[in-house]
TrEMBL record:
CDD domains: CuRO_1_LCC_plant, CuRO_2_LCC_plant, CuRO_3_LCC_plant. Its cofactor is Cu cation. Binds 4 Cu cations per monomer. Belongs to the multicopper oxidase family. This is Laccase. It catalyses: 4 hydroquinone + O2 = 4 benzosemiquinone + 2 H2O. Its main location: secreted. The keyword Phosphoprotein does not apply. Its EC number is 1.10.3.2. One of its GO terms (cellular component) is apoplast. It holds the Pfam family Cu-oxidase_2. It comes from the Eukaryota. Keywords: Apoplast, Copper, Glycoprotein, Lignin degradation, Metal-binding, Oxidoreductase, Repeat, Secreted.
Amino acid sequence: MRLKVKIFIQQIIVFLFLLGLLPAHAFVHRHRFIIKEAPYSKLCSSKNILTVNGQFPGPVIYANTGDTLVVNVQNDGTQNITIHWHGVKQPRYPWSDGPEFITQCPIRPGTNFSQRINLSDEEGTLWWHAHSDWSRATVNGALIIRPANKTNYPFPRPAAEIPIILGEWWKSDVQTVVNEFLASGGDANKSDAFLINGQPGDLYPCSTNDTFKLTVEKDKTYMLRIVNAVMNNLMFFSVANHQLTVVGTDGAYVKPFKSNYITISPGETIDVLLEANQNPNHYYMGAKAYNSVVGVPFDNTTTTAIIQYRGNYTASSPPIFPDLPNFDDTNASFNFTRSLKSLADKTHPINVPLNITTNLLFTFSVNTLPCEDESCSGPNGDRFAASVNNISFVLPRIDILEAYYKNIQGVYGDEFPSFPPLNFNFTGGSLPVELQRPDRRTEVHVLEYGTNVEIVLQGTSLLGGVDHPIHLHGYSFYVVGAGFGNFDKDKDPLNYNLVDPPLQNTIAVVRNGWAAIRFKADNPGVWFMHCHLERHVSWGMEMAFIVKDGKGSQEKLLPPPPDMPLC
C-alpha cells in the first residue's frame, strides 16, 4: 500500500512539473496525513476525537518561502473531511485550497487526495485546518515558513521558535454540539476550556499535569509563533512580567513594536519575540476570550502554560500570573489590531493598490429566520442565521470550482451584490425586525482579472452586533483603514494608511464598525470569503469570488489534478 502511495505521489509531482508548477529550484516537501479517531482525556473525562496521525494539535509543517508541499490526505475516519492551507495563496491552483463544496468535494472515508500546496511570497507563520463542518476543532496544526535562504529574518535570529496554538475543548463530542444547535435554531453550547498546544493548563479540573511548559535560558530571545485555532472567540494573550515584541502576522512581517498583550482573531497568526530578561522563576502565559456582547454566554475561563527559566532557584508557587485586558475591553482589542503596520522596507516592499477599479461594500449581520410553530431556540422563537449583504449562503452539493471549470449550470448564481440591497443605518439602534430576514441563496461575485479591489467590510447592529474576523482565501490584502460606526465614503478614506498598511488574510471587523481592505485580483479561480467564527459560518456568513482568467499564459486557472475527490 505504501509503495502504491509513493508511486502515485511521484506521478503527481511529474504531472505538476510538466505543467510548469514545480520550478527546478523549488524544494518539495512530502507529507502523509492520516485522518483517524484517537482517544484523548481532559477535564476529568475521555472521548475520541478526529486527528491527523493521532496528534492533537496536528503535526507542525516546516518549509521555506517558495517551496512546494505535497500532502497525501488519507481519510481513515468516519466522516467527510477537507484540509485548508490557511493563508497560502495557491497561485492559479485553487484545487488544493480545501473549503468543502467551494473548491472541492469532501474526501470521503476510505479515500485519499494528494494536495499540492505552492508557497509563493508567504513568510512567517500560517496554519492548516479542516474546512468541513466543525472538524477543525481538533484537525489543525501550524505551517512555519522560513526565509528562502534560512537566515535573513529582519531581526536577530532567535534562540528557538515555538508554535503556540490556542485551541478550544468541549467535553462532549464536537459534532454533537453542531448537530444540537443547528437542530434547535439557537446558539452553540459554550466550550469547557481553552487550550495552549492542546493542554488546558493547571487552573482547570484534573489538569495539574496537563500544562504546556517552555524552558528558557536567561538573556536569550525566543520567537512564539501564535495561532488562534479557537472556534468562536477572539483571544487576549499575555506573558507575566514580559513584554512581547510583535514582528509578524499572517505570514508577513510588521514593523516591530512592544506590547504587554496581543489580541488575536480566530484564523489569525501573530509572531512575537520574547526576551527572557526577568529573574529566573516560573511565569504563566495566559489566554482568555474577548467578548463584546453583553448577555451572550461564552467560555470565561483562562488557559495557561508555564515559562520556566533554566537554573537553580526556588520557583514561585503558583507561578506569577499575567495581566490580561478585561474580557469586554473593546478598545484593547481594536487598538492592538490598529498597531499593526507592514515592515515596508527595501527587502520587504509592499504594493498597495492605489487606482481602485472595483469598489464593494459588504455588510456582515447576524439574522433570524422564521421557525415552524415559533419553537426554535433563537430570538422570539426564530432560528439564528447570518448573512453577507443580506444573503445567507447555502452550500451547494457540487463544488463551485468544478461547476465553474466545467460550466455546470444550476450550481450557483453570479449575482452577489456589490452593495447591500437595503440601505439603512447599519449600526443604529432599534432597527426594524424585517431587516433581520436574509435571503438564502448560493451566489458568487465575479471579478475581472487584474482589477484593483477595495472592499469595505461593514458590521451591523442587527441583534446587537458582534466582532467579525473576516478571512479571504487565495489572497492577502492590505488593511488600509478601520473604525467604529458606519463607514463614511467621503471622510474615512482621507485617513487611509496607504504607506505601510498591514498585509493580512484575516481581519477582525470591530463590533458595529468597519474595516477597508485592498488587493489586486490577479489570482484566477474560486475563492471563499467568510467570518472565522465557526457558528457564523454554520449560519451562512460567507460568500465566494470568481476571479476570471487573464489574457497571458501565466494568468489562467490551471487544470485540476487527476485525483480530485468525487461529489
